[in-house]
Amino acid sequence: MDITVNILLTVATAATPLLIAAIGELVVERSGVLNLGVEGMMIMGAVGGFGAGYLTGSPWIGLLAAIAMGALFSLLFAIMTLSLATNQVATGLSLTLLGLGLSGMMGTNFVGQPGQRLPNLDIPGLTSIPVVGRLLFGQDPIFYISIALTAAVMWFLFKTRKGLTLRSIGDSHSSAHALGIQVIRYRYLSVVFGGACAGLAGGHLSLVYTPQWVENMTAGRGWIALALVVFASWRPWRVLAGAYIFGAVWIGQLHAQAFGIPVPSQMLSSLPYLATIVVLVLISRNKRLTMMNTPASLGQPFVPDR
Amino acid sequence: MSANQDGANLLEVRGLTKVFGTLTACDHVDLNIARGEIHALLGENGAGKSTLVKMLFGSLEPNSGEIFWNGQAVRITSPGVAKKLGIGMVFQHFSLFEALTAAENIALSLDDGSPIGTIAAKARALSYSYGLPLDPESLVGDLSVGERQRIEIIRCLLQTPQLVILDEPTSVLTPQEADKLFETLERLRAEGKSILYISHRLEEVKRICDRATVLRHGKVVGHCNPRKETAASLARMMVGNEVQAVVRAPAEGIETAPSLLEIRALTRKPATPFSIPLRNINLNVRAGEVIGIAGVAGNGQGEFFESVSGEVLQHDAASVRIRGKDAGGLTITGRRLMGAAFVPEERLGHGAAPRMKLSENLLLSRHATDGKVFVGAGGMVKGGAIYSAAQRIINAMDVRKSAPDPEAAALSGGNLQKFIVGRELDRRPDVMVVNQPTWGVDAGAAAHIRQALIELARSGSAVLVISQDLDELFEISDAIAVMHNGELSKPLPIAEATFERIGLLMGGAEPGHAEHTLETA
């Protein structure tokens, strides 16, 4: 029983950064912008969060620093692609490369240092309930943020007028512009929101998952988050489900390796990516659903002719 | 503001100028629109009509000039500002979101925060009161072009504008749908609203407009009362000189001539969720005749052209037969080698590679069919032969250009279309299939292209023309078939065809289309 709970807890911990980064990217892509720099923003959040926590001694300041770092870094992307209308794919890729390099440089003095860890929730009386107590009331604060964030994004996109406006921009930015909607402003806010989420996801890695700084510690999670958004066909609740499936596969392959299952470890490590491909093929079969949810202007630079 | 309410014009434009690079799209344009009038803005394609209204709606910024609204000088810096002033616009190319419902589309253009349900109810009530029934819950991607236009109009009216701008509103409507639109416009005029009506269809303008301003090459060349003019005199003002009438010699002995293009039970599933399936299409085009295919845009014409030209292959090879042989399984090149030629609707990127020279574009479409002429031993291209062939086409079709062998994108739309049609005509094909031959082409060039198509047919070829322009089809066709919802009617000989009959067919009035008749009636 205890083992099951422990495995479930580790799955949640593995899924949380994927969920947060993917929910942020979902909002960005719903507004019609493709930011491939998730990995870069995430690692910047990780190094910023670790550094601030280490220097101030407070993991909470570290958390805020991670969010701010991701947002700030995404602002660079926003200025390039939205104000200067550069190619989004190229800019996103270079953002990732820049983030990986810059974080390595910023983190040279942090390597091997003990970090700060965000404390798990501990509510007397509730957390000690057998089995469900630790699952529901004993996790790290970012886990709760990730669930609340998913619900909030779902509500915003599909229940509010601002959300409708955001989706319409993703569907056709020129039509939105013709209606007098401020396309660029909405996209700026979306991109920065996505950056803040990626930063928070990075902060989770260096403040909760493994409270230390290791170069390249995001290990491709940013790319999985990107795939998750497509996997979920741009719908928040599917991102939640997808993140947990990926988290489970991730943890599962670790356990499988630990138990010495005679399958090459590389094979197991590639499972999450294999799962992505299979699911993408499956969902693309329902063309109508895909077309209705895919932001049609995704990745196209918007330049209003004046 | 109230002091200026009566007497003064609702909108006054003085000296409005817009320059794009070296082209002056609008050159000191003056325009006055009074309250409660339908004002026509006339001009050929490229005369500057769209540029002018985009400046009035705030999507383009003028280089110089002034705009007065109710006598006050205003700067319309964005569509949002235009909406606040009370200017509404119904776009030529719809500004709707396909993945959203009609009600959501309408909600997006309203600034108040009322819930979607309320907006849907309001839209439904307003649409019925104007006789433009609308289902607010339906997904825009599933709607016909006429229904989409209703959404645009209702959306515009819900903002209670003083001035409604309509950009070529009838180009996508059947004649009957257009009648319905005119009733709506007359009602709006009776309510004291002003309408700026942009069109190049002169009969419509004569019918509903009170005044007209005529643009040519970005300049205002005249004002008139269209009711006192004839279509010919309006055309003269627009074009600047007389337009040569197209001559169609009677076709003789067609009944006994062989069928060069046969379509047999052509059926195709929809390629995307929002596209139209083709349903059991049958058609014969004989040597010596021109058959026209009419229809409201988006009823399967594009899908039909793709299937006939070989951009999409058929499972049933016998569904397309060229000169008596099965061609359904062949690619475009295969069908060209059988003597067919195709001109697609989209000029840039489809009919021609924009950044390549005209001579290179010629080689691209004809290296297979005229291999011996253009390609020598070892696959080396014969530059001289291609260049002189390109010049021959340019001269034959009177293509106007700025350099001896310019890039395709450097030509104006009309001139590029002349070149593309000329490139196919130059081969003297036995079968010619053309989609929208004169879309966006000025009247002089259009007449030239139409005449060339008739002459090709009379010299013994089979010509199939798909067009949204009914006037054009009546001018050149020996028989007209109508495409509606992926089905093709029987061709109606031109002697029996009238605008009304064709219009009814375009709305779906034929056995088997009963359910659609109700919608459009």
Provide the helix percentage of chain B: 25-40%
In terms of structural class, how would the helical and strand content of chain B be classed?
Answer: alpha/beta
Quickly count the domains of chain B: 3
Biggest sheet overview of chain A: none
SS summary, helix count of chain A: 14
- Rg of chain B over CA atoms, rounded to whole Å, is 24 Å
Strand content of chain B: 15-25%
CATH class of the largest domain in chain B: Alpha Beta
Percent of residues of chain A in helical segments? over 70%
- What is the oligomer described by this structure? heterodimer
> What is the number of domains of chain A?
1
Query: What is the chain-wise order of helices and strands of chain A?
Result: HHHHHHHHHHHHHH
Number of strands of chain A: 0
CATH fold-level name of the largest domain in chain B: Rossmann fold
Topology:
The complex is a heterodimer of chains A (306) and B (521).
Chain A: H1 2-30, H2 38-56, H3 59-83, H4 88-106, H5 132-137, H6 141-159, H7 161-171, H8 173-178, H9 183-209, H10 221-231, H11 236-258, H12 265-269, H13 271-283, H14 287-293
Helix pairs in contact in A: 1-6, 1-9, 1-10, 1-11, 2-3, 2-4, 2-9, 2-10, 3-4, 3-9, 6-7, 10-11, 10-13
Chain B: E1 11-20, E2 23-33, E3 38-42, H1 49-56, E4 64-69, E5 72-74, H2 79-85, E6 87-90, H3 102-109, H4 116-129, H5 145-158, E7 163-167, H6 175-190, E8 194-199, H7 202-208, E9 211-216, E10 219-224, H8 231-239, E11 259-268, E12 278-286, E13 290-294, H9 301-309, E14 320-322, E15 325-326, H10 332-337, E16 340-343, H11 358-366, H12 371-374, H13 383-397, H14 413-425, E17 431-435, H15 443-458, E18 462-466, H16 470-476, E19 479-484, E20 487-488, E21 492-493, H17 499-506, H18 514-520
Helix pairs in contact in B: 3-4, 3-5, 4-5, 11-13, 13-14, 14-15
